[in-house]
Design goal:
Order of helices and strands: HHH
Largest sheet: none
Shape: elongated
Helix content: over 70%
Number of domains: 1
Radius of gyration: 16 Å
């Protein structure tokens, strides 16, 4: 077995786990009792989608998904900073 075949086999095993995680995060984002729960679910979903995009880039041997994953991860980080700043100062902006 080559390294590429091993990587493809591992990725095929990991994909259902990601799909289950996506569904659970979506349920938490919709039914979250508090705003921090919703933000945490969206944050985890964003980072998991970014990781999933990188896994798909490896699976398809295509580097085109990696910049999109990086942008998504930076956006999710910015969302965390924005929400944390809002909860600390109770004002929107900057």
């Amino acid at each position: 077995m080559t390294l590429e075949e091993i990587a493809r086999s591992v990725i095929m095993i990991i994909m259902p786990i990601f799909i289950v995680a996506f569904v659970l995060y979506a349920i938490r984002a919709i039914r979250g009792p508090t705003i921090p729960d919703i933000v945490l679910a969206i944050d985890a979903l964003s980072f998991d989608v970014a990781a999933f995009m990188i896994i798909l880039a490896i699976y398809f041997s295509s580097p085109f998904l990696i910049p999109g994953a990086i942008v998504l991860a930076v956006w999710a980080y910015a969302l965390d900073i924005f929400v944390a700043k809002y909860y600390e100062k109770k004002e929107i902006g900057e």
